[in-house]
């Protein structure tokens, strides 16, 4: 796992003269090394002292924390309609909390829970100046976070206060953390407690306890606040507890950052028009080999499909030509070669229906009956032509009158008689008749 370069802008810093502290953070051991404070020039000198390998690793993993004095953080509920258009809706959700036009601010957001959104707000001029200052010393942080979202939000009517020099980070129940100067703490609590008293018995976000967190270096300021909060506990019946922390606030912010960032609970200010393209480019380099393989595989598959389609098309045309050739052989009189399948189906259906009819027997019975009546007619041969559903009769008669009498007798049975030929052979008249229904 890579070490990270964590930079925290000082709470009392001004944008035109940045002061900050930074360190290397090892996520495995959760340890801070090379902790340093100073301005942007000191940071540049510190970076120049790193060896090339460590420096490259650090430059790829830079995280910046911005104090609550120059940024704000809000946690709000959203409905499904807002969620669908969150990029357009987000700025207007915080507009009422800003003293200037919303167009002057950059609003970043992250849906942290179902129907809950976290929003971070910072003036565009400040964020642009900050990014430019870092880029001037070859730093391109891909992650910039408002540190107020790194303080735990309480839900059990407890106010958590974290001391840091002359500032206090105050987290009221179900509200975002606000960073104020120590002198303003009493005014904030007075306002909140008076408002609570006016609400009467309503629970709401009622304050029932206060917890003060401090580091050893802030004991003097803690002693001053102890006296104030102890007076509050007597007046408003509120529990008070002060807790000394083993590590300075910087350590706790870093540890909380990595815990929450794993769960996608944090808002990165580098989004929208302030996105870090270097991070995107690095991700592209990391995945480009795999992407090239996927593209090559897709292209090869496409080429093979095109070849297969061409082969099948050629075979289809050859099969179609062969079908036409066979059809023309079977039905030489057919001129149109359109819809051969339909035509063939109809012909087969018609033939099937006709074959089912007892045509032969319908022809033989009248011929047999008439022969019995005309003893002068001699039947030489009888041939059934199945394709034409007809009988070919070769007969001999003594004279033409006997032949015509025989034909007339057959016609009485609604037979179709065609005299194919008639020749005088010796004393007899030899004739060929085609009989059909």
Explain the layout of strands and helices.
Layout: E1 4-9, E2 19-26, E3 31-39, H1 40-48, H2 52-59, E4 62-66, E5 71-77, H3 80-84, H4 86-93, E6 105-113, E7 116-123, H5 124-135, E8 143-146, E9 158-164, E10 167-171, E11 178-181, H6 185-198, E12 209-214, H7 219-236, E13 239-244, H8 249-262, H9 277-330, H10 340-355, H11 359-373, E14 378-385, E15 390-397, H12 400-411, E16 416-425, E17 428-436
Parallel strand pairs: 1-4, 4-8, 9-12, 12-13
Antiparallel strand pairs: 1-2, 2-3, 5-7, 6-7, 9-10, 10-11, 14-15, 15-17, 16-17
Secondary-structure class: alpha+beta
Number of helices: 12
CATH class of the largest domain: Alpha Beta
What is the arithmetic mean of pLDDT?
Answer: 85
The profile of the biggest β sheet is: 5 strands, mixed
How many strands? Answer: 17
Described by the principal axes of the CA atoms, the overall outline is rod-shaped
Strand content: 25-35%
Indicate the low-confidence ranges by residue numbers. Answer: none
